[in-house]
Amino acid sequence: MALIRATCSDCGDVELRSRDLRVRQCRDDESATYLFRCPMCRMIEVRPAEQHVVDVLLAAGVHSTEWHLPAELGERPVGAAITHDDVLDFHDLLSTPDWFTTLASMNDR
Description:
Blueprint: E1 3-8, E2 12-17, E3 21-26, E4 32-37, E5 44-48, H1 51-59, E6 63-67, H2 84-94, H3 99-108
Parallel strand pairs: 3-6
Antiparallel strand pairs: 1-2, 3-4, 4-5
């Protein structure tokens, strides 16, 4: 199992084994990150990774996960934009005891 040096934002350089890291690759925009839990402070670090870094990590035996962007990112919103007055009206609505019933009835219209 390969030893890999990574940098924790709190502890500095740490040495990890390939089983201690994960690579995540987005198939829609070809971006990638790698993540690990720092062996000293136990915080999870997530770092962007260029393709050559991904190739080295995969060659060292690091497990890889592929994912896709959410479909909602491709949707175009319809309707008017929310205004400051809309936010204030919603705030006022939340201060009433039956706000949920009122809100639910607005959706039925």
